[in-house]
C-alpha cells in the first residue's frame, strides 16, 4: 500500500558540505532577504523564513547554469535564463539551518558566486550561504565586550618553515595579567585554520558565553592540521605524526612562551570537527600527558579500551548532528560513563555534517572545560 500523505518529505542528503530537505509544500513564502554573508551591497543569494535559497547569476552567454548541491553531479538547483541574460532559481526545498558551502556550474565549469563572500572549504575558496537558524542568538554579533583573534607565525623546524595559527584571546586580555587555560581547536578535511573563526564564529560564541557568565575565559588556538595533504577518499592513509610534532613540540611551546597561559595538562584541551576530531583522538591518546579535556565533534568516538589511565582524563565531549549517526555517539557515551569516565554527549537536532552542528557543539562543550 502506497501512502502519499506526507506533507513534508522525504529525502535528506548531505554532500559537499551542503544539506537540504526536499519538500512538498504548497507555497514558498516571498519574504526573501539577502544572505548575511553576501558581498557588500549584493542582493543575491537570498534566503527566506522557511529556509529556501534563491540564486541569481549574471551569465548572458551561458547555455547552462546550476548551483551545486551535491557531489558527482547529483542534486543541484538548475537556474533558468531571463530576458536580461541573468539566471535565477530557487532550491527545491528548505535547507538545514546554518552555514553551507556551494559553487556555481556554468557550462560545465566550476565558479564561485560573485554575490557572496568566500570561505575555505573543499580544499578551495568556496561561496557560502547562511540559512537563518532559530537558535542563532548564541553566535550573533552583540553589544558585549569582544575578544580578539590574532594571527601568529610560529617557527616549525620539523617542516622547515614558519607556520600560521590564529589565537582567540578573551575580552580584557591585553590589559590584564591573568593566565588562562587553552583549547586547541581543529578544523576538518578541506578546511584550514580560518574555518573556526569565519564559518564557525568561535570568537563570537566565546564572547557571548563570557558575557552571559556561563564560562570562565580561556584562549582558543586554531592552526592548519595538514589534513589536506591526503585526497578525499584516502583518509586512512593520513599519518598523524607530522602534525603531532608541529602541534605538541612546536606550537604549544610557542603559545606558552608568548601568551599568558596556564601551561599544565589540566588547563589544556584539544577538540576538532570531522577529520580534526580524528586528529584529536589520535593525539590525545598518543600524548595523554599533554591534554586533559578531549572533544570529538562529528569526528569519531572513544571507547573505554582507548583510555589506558582514566585518571588522566578530566572530561570527554562527543557530539554529532541528528542526521549523522547519533546512536553511535549515545552508545559510546553510555559505555564510557559505565567505565567511570567523565563524558558528555550532545546531538544537534535537525543538522548533519555541517557547521551548525559544530557551532552548537562548541557552545555546549565550552562550559564543561577546565572545571
UniProtKB/TrEMBL annotation:
Pfam families: Esterase. GO terms for molecular function: acyltransferase activity, transferring groups other than amino-acyl groups; hydrolase activity. InterPro entries: AB_hydrolase_fold, Esterase-like, Ig-like_fold, Mycobacterial_A85_antigen. Keywords: Hydrolase, Signal. It comes from the Bacteria. PANTHER family: DIACYLGLYCEROL ACYLTRANSFERASE_MYCOLYLTRANSFERASE AG85A, ENTEROCHELIN ESTERASE-RELATED. This is Alpha/beta hydrolase-fold protein.
